[in-house]
Amino acid sequence: MSVSAPIKFSVKDYKADLHNDWCLGCGDFGILTGIQMALAQLNLDPDKIALFSGIGCSGKTPHYIKAYGFHTLHGRVLPVATGGRLANSAVTVLAMGGDGDGYGIGAGYFVNSGRRNLDFTYIVHTNQVYGLTKGQASPTLSKGRKTKSMPEQNIQDGVNPIAMAVAAGYTFIARAYALEPKYLAGILVKAIQHKGSALVDVLQTCPTYNDLYTKEWYEGADLPEKKSRLYKLEEHGYDGVVKDPADLDEIIMKKAAAVARSYEAEPIPTGIYYQVELPTYEDAVNQRIPALAEKPLVEIDTFHRDVDPLLEAMR
Ligand code: SF4
Ligand code: MG
């Protein structure tokens, strides 16, 4: 009897055969590549991946990845991804969307998803504008800044996604740069492997509407020494991983360090700001309904009430 070799997936196995209509030079291309590289590194079966997206240019990302995809309503990506995750715990769930989608209209969901610690990875394309609707200021644009798509300076301050994630309870918090897909892929691998809610905030260039935070700006092309305005936390002795999750003092110290780093504006830190292993929402659900620990909800016959294994399990 011959034994078939295990399948080894490559980046091309995650490429959907669909015309991509992002603008030329958009940072979303780098994020797409980073996601596909991470999926290949983890050798995840495309059949076992569920991608969810909100509205915006970045919302199209699942269209370009060969896996299951769900393009949801504006700001609603996290509740829909939560439903997907709870319905089928056998799949890897990635949620994605823009900074306007996630930190604006979706901000309430962002906070409550963090405190649940459900096992999924949320990738936010942070480009400081609402690209799809012609470049209005998004929630991450600082006060007083004016992109070429805005008639006047921004009159309100920007939010700090890393600090918000720390406060909300995300257990893996990282930042990367869209035009470094290899580095982004490495971060995404760790985020996907992490058991719990992971936020990866990706600094994304929008050459069509954002003439402030450009490739040239991030990479310091205008500086005399041409030094990047980004640096990698781990190359500067920073370690945001909590070693003892039972040690509250260590948790508070690492959270405070992550928040402090998140306010560094130039250069901007990339890498893992904070990580801790804590019980997930699924752990709590499985404890209450043991049947769900054995197989995903989608595989349980919940239709025939008199033999409902969920109710049986709760008796
Ligand atoms: Fe990318 Fe900006 Fe074009 Fe949208 S508008 S596709 S974010 S460059
Ligand atoms: Mg945006």
CATH class of the largest domain: Alpha Beta
Total beta-strand segments: 10
Bound molecules: iron/sulfur cluster, magnesium ion
Instruction: Please bin the fraction of helical residues.
Output: 25-40%
Explain what the structure shows.
The chain is α/β, with parallel strands linked by helices. Helices cover 32% and strands 16% of the residues. The chain contains eleven helices and ten strands. An eight-stranded mixed beta sheet has the order 2-1-3-4-8-7-10-9, sandwiched between helices. It has a two-stranded antiparallel ribbon with strand order 5-6. Bound molecules: iron/sulfur cluster and magnesium ion. Magnesium ion is lined by residues 56, 98-100, 127, 129-131, 138.
What is the topological layout?
Blueprint: H1 28-41, E1 49-53, E2 68-71, H2 77-87, E3 92-98, H3 99-105, H4 107-116, E4 120-126, E5 129-130, E6 136-137, H5 161-168, E7 172-177, H6 181-193, E8 197-203, H7 215-218, E9 230-232, H8 248-262, E10 268-275, H9 281-288, H10 291-294, H11 309-314
Parallel strand pairs: 1-2, 1-3, 3-4, 4-8, 7-8, 9-10
Antiparallel strand pairs: 5-6, 7-10
Helix pairs in contact: 1-6, 3-4, 4-5, 5-8
The structure holds iron/sulfur cluster and magnesium ion.
Name a few traits of the molecule:
315 residues; alpha/beta; Rossmann fold; 8-stranded mixed beta sheet; binds iron/sulfur cluster; binds magnesium ion
In a nutshell, what does this entry contain?
The model has no long low-confidence stretch (mean pLDDT about 95). Helix 8 links the parallel strand 9 (about 230) and strand 10 (about 270-275).
